[in-house]
Amino acid sequence: MSVKKIGILTGGGDCPGLNAVIRAVVTRAEQRGVDVLGIRGGWRGFLDNDTEVLTRQRTRGILHEGGTILGTTRTNPFQEKGGPERVVAAFAAWKLDGLIAVGGEGTLSLATKFHERGLKVVGVPKTIDNDLSGTEATFGFDTAIEVATELIDRLRTTAEAHERVMVVEVMGRHAGWIAVHAGLAGGADVIVVPERPTTIEEITKVVLMRRAEGKPFSIVVIAEGALIQESDAKEAHLVLTNIAPDAFGRPRLGGIGAHVARCIEDATGIESRTTVLGHVQRGGTPTARDRVLALRYGARAMDVLADGKSGVMVALRADRIVEVPLAEATKQRKTVDAEWLALADVFCAGPGLAP
Ligand code: F6P
Asked: How far apart are CA 212 and CA 207, in angstroms?
């Protein structure tokens, strides 16, 4: 069957490089004689019939821009009345021969479900969290760690001047990739990740040790999804300020930094402050590396569909763009492994990290 028209959507949290993917898809589509329909607001566009025709003209000048010209939401059609059937019906009504779904865990798990319902779908891995299995890299991550590292550098000078502890809360959901990379690059004294539950005592030990060695300030980088182990509790726990889950039933993370800073100050008497890096990590212009990765993913995703293939995600392996089964992307979360934790142990006298 020849491919004449495809759709593209961007779903989940935005991240730098989405526009580069859209531009790549449209550029390659034009070369292959395929029309592109942009579906606005992620999967919501299917339910609300909210679309826009994408042409080369429309996608000129957006390569370096953050955000997404298509908008994005965390809409889950499986949570809406008749949602999945409405998506399938819209796909047919718009006469699509395929769909490129650009997203992270939530968007790609939906892409997998619609592939199983017979739609021709190709996934593109996007997330600052870098937590998708099946690929060595997701675009957006490089920008996030660049931003976080720069901010840690800035916090270091003020921490040193005031002899304070700076607790820097970074994003990453239940994976500690941003914390480990930005923490290592920013020379953090402690890195706390979800993959290794940590006690407050382990953190304060480092802070006090540094003070005893004549370094009265410390930088503690903590992932929003880190788990704190209280001495009197059986299980380590998340610290959340917002308990309402998102459309995929996942907790909205955030708040652990303030809790940990309070505990450090109580335990050590050293003034401890928190900075939540939050959405600045995924705002603004993508790094060159993310732009190029996004362009490679977009062009290949278009070729895959135009060649009549689907049910796959484009992925990076050994610096080559390859195709992996869609289901592989979300089968298992890619988390920080022992090798990375061991590297953090070398450079941080961190909780349980001290060599
Ligand atoms: O998945 C990307 C991400 O930025 C996570 O790191 C974070 O937990 C979440 O999205 C925040 O989502 P929202 O923008 O909906 O608050």
From this structure: 9
